[in-house]
Amino acid sequence: MPNATFRIFRGDRNNGDLIEYQVPIAPGMVVLDALHYIQAHDAPDLAVRWNCKAGKCGSCSAEVNGRPRLTCKTRLDALPLDEPITVQPMKSFPVLKDLVTDVSWNYRVNKKIPPFTPKPDVEWKMDQREVDRVQEFRKCIECFLCQNVCHVLRDHEKVEQFGGPRFFVRVAGLEMHPLDALSRTELLKDELGIGLCNITKCCTEVCPEDIHITDNAIIPLKERVVDDFYDPVRWFLRKLSGKERT
Amino acid sequence: MTEKYETHEHDVLIIGAGGAGLRAAIEALAQGARVGVVCKSLLGKAHTVMAEGGIAAAMANVDAADDWRTHFRDTMSGGKFLNNWRMAQLHAQEAPERVRELEQWGALFDRTADGNILQRAFGGHTFKRLCHVGDRTGLEMIRTLQDRGVHLGIDVYMECAITRLLKDGERIAGAFGYWRENGRFVVFKAKSVVIATGGIGKAWRITSNSWEYTGDGMALAFDAGAELMDMEFVQFHPTGMVWPPGVQGILVTEAVRGEGGILRNKDGERFMERYDPERVDLSTRDVVARAIYTEAKEGRGTEHGGAYLDISHKPAEYVKKKLPSMYHQFRELADVDITKGPMEVGPTCHYMMGGIRVDAETARSNVPGLFAAGEAAAGLHGANRLGGNSLSDLLVFGRRAGLAAAEHAKQAGTPSIDDAQVDEATGEMIEPFERSTGESPYDVHRDLQETMQNYVGIFRSEEDLKHGISEIQGLKDRAAKVHVDGSRLFNPGWHLARDLKSLLTVSEAVALSALERRESRGAHSRIDYPNYDELWGRQNNIIRREGETMRLSQRPVAEIPSDLRAILEEKK
Question: pTM value?
Answer without folding.
Answer: 0.96
